[in-house]
Amino acid sequence: MKRTVLPVLLLLAAACGPRYGMRVPDQLVSKLPYESRIELLESENDLALAIDTVDEASNEVLRARDAIRRAKARESAAEEEEDRAPDAASREVAKLAIEEARARVAYLRAKQRLNVGLRDVEQLSLRCAFARYELARLQSTRKAKVEGSEKLDVKKYEGQVSKCEAEVKEERGELAEDIAQEKTAREAWEVKKAALAKKTFDARASPYVEKL
User: Fold this and answer.
1) Which of 16, 72, 126 is nearest to 118 (CA)?
2) The whole model's pTM is what?
């Protein structure tokens, strides 16, 4: 998880712009004694963790996109199987497979809406981690009495952190509906999956039932 955060800091600062993007001048931080730099490692690690969390949230969006594509392909295959079914029993299984595939697609789309919302929240959380890191840098320069640090307003940096964290809390709360819809869609899919598995005798061995 530990990574070099400086290049990411520069990119993040450019991306953030004025929104939670206040920075402590690097020339002040460069004057910190070694022991003060060591004290900043915890904040750097927190920032690295936030970066990794954004990466994972973005990867989850990509994985869900692939899962939706596979589920839609299975739906088409089940529809073709229904057309080719030689008897009533085979047609019944094919119909159950179509229902399961459609429920799976509906669930995965609901999950993807939630994934996108979570990714956006984690991206904002990364900005908060950036703001906390800059606050830590300012506090370290003030503590070490670095010349020029006294001109920076600590309260503004603290306010940047507080405002960002409040926005994250608000955005997480707004995900409640997406969470509920994802849960409902998953439960509906589980019902269809269980019905198909029962008809094909064993979900673990059934060629019709794909595990997520």
Assistant:
1) 126
2) 0.80
